[in-house]
Write a structure and sequence with these properties.
The chain contains 7 helices and 18 strands. The protein is α+β, with helices and mostly antiparallel strands. The radius of gyration is 20 Å and the shape is globular.
Amino acid sequence: MQQPKSWQTVTFRAMGSHINLWLDSADTAWLAAFELVEELFRSNEEALSRFREDSELSQLNRHSGEWFPVSLLLWEVLQAAVDMAAATGGLFDPTILDALEFAGYTQSFEVLTTAVNYNPHFKNNHHVGAWRDIRFDSLNQRVLLPPGSRIDLGGIAKGFTAQQAVDILNQYGPCLVDAGGDLTAGTAPYGFAGWPVAVAAPKTDVDPLDLFTLWLAEGSLATSGIDYRHWLRNGRTVHHLIDPFSGQPAETDVITTTVLAKEATTAEAWATAALIGGITTGMAHLVANQFPAVMITCNNKLMLTPAMADKLTELQQMWNLG
């Protein structure tokens, strides 16, 4: 479709991803709005990145086993991560940083080499269910990580920031935030049922394909996959999605999972959890929680939850009526 002239857009890079913003606005207020959001992503990355030695998250990780005072931002993101760990039965787990580094994911992906050799400096000290032992002191806004545990907030920090960005942009008009392919929308643009967003097929060597298009408004569409972030470690292909129950890159029968949810952190966490759980366990969780979702299996089979199938049926009826 041709983009309306009132749809303002900007692109920048943050949190290891290309960030694209859209705002349906006919005046110049969008310039200030975009500047606010770009600064938001920059400041949140400075606080929440595990790749920055001076980040607040890295400081917290260096003080595991001790009560550590944190900012409201880190407090809220970490609480969201623990809440999602509980909701997913531990399939999503923020305490997997040791396992990630042991697998070779030691640098931001854009600078990570395609082949990583074993480094004895990194140890896999992952303890199953360590997230259950994270303690929060609300009176003093302090966090206690279990001794030896370290946190990676990754996609959930990006989703949290995207939700904050939408809250800012919504004050200026209908908006959409694309954070590395994970989409969070505010109100629908004027005259539309939502923002037209595509669910993409897994990455291949040819031009990317779109599976189908949805209208997205006041919700988030997140995709987790092993088709992009992978590398060779000692001659073996590994990826960044750690199975919290083994402490190793997940052996899954799913390539990508896309989840539609009201909140970005919910969509992010469940996309990861369902992919790790695979066709049987992951899909069962998505169905039980009534998420509109789609899985692409390792044998290229497309699987829809009933809620997603219903949504596509509704769209087809709209198109037919049109």
